[in-house]
């Protein structure tokens, strides 16, 4: 399985991840979930693997721009997945899937451990 990077192209963390792969000549596929969306199954899988609290990006502009009543309603994986499905920018980026392991967020040391 070729590594798949999920994210949006203008995100700084996604750019760092793509640069890491390109600089190290590692082949990957890029899934732009701003254009292509993200499946319910992928969100459920990521939340099960990493915990919904780690998949939901609470530091980004999308989260900060949400109405407080919406934020208060996010209490579990089901409510977080619904929000992330409707607002893909609320997903922490990048999400990587590969045979060598999956990860969420940019972590160069972890990438080195997995891919080099």
From TrEMBL:
Signal peptide: none annotated. Pfam families: ArsC. It comes from the Bacteria. Gene3D superfamilies: Glutaredoxin. InterPro entries: Arsenate_reductase-like, Thioredoxin-like_sf, Tscrpt_reg_Spx/MgsR. NCBIfam families: arsC_related. Belongs to the ArsC family. This is Arsenate reductase. It comes from Pedobacter psychrophilus.
